[in-house]
Amino acid sequence: MLKKIEAIIREDKVNDVKDALSEIGIVGLNIFEIRGHGRQGGIKLAGRSGTYMVDMLPKIQVNIVLSDRNLEATIEAILRSAYTGEQGDGLIFVYPVEEVIRIRTRERSQEAMTYPGDIDERKGVVRLAPPAESSPGK
After folding, report:
1. How many angstroms separate the CA atoms of 49 and 62, rounded?
2. How far is CA 112 from CA 1, 8, 24, 66, 87, in A?
3. Which of residues 95 and 131 earns the better pLDDT score?
């Protein structure tokens, strides 16, 4: 079974998180710049004209699709590298993924998610050989 991790983290922790994921062998991921707030509701800033509330704070969203067997190691890497101990460290969401299809090769599921040097290769997980490439019209 495949899972999707959606982690919302601080902007200043993005390189730490990317490095931690790379260390364990997570190769494929997407990163988005987003804005939002959680429990803290935003922050108060003081300016020349007084104080004001900024309620939509800049954050980074990291998306990763991976197999069940790599889920806990990946979550632990994110928790360890994104942690500051202060409000606003972020959240991790985990979703089931029904199917993944690589457009170029038509590989599906786990075969579509494999990359050279990824976490499974480092763990020595046996994979099925990818299907031979063929033209869509044949």
Report:
1. 36
2. 13, 25, 19, 10, 37
3. 95
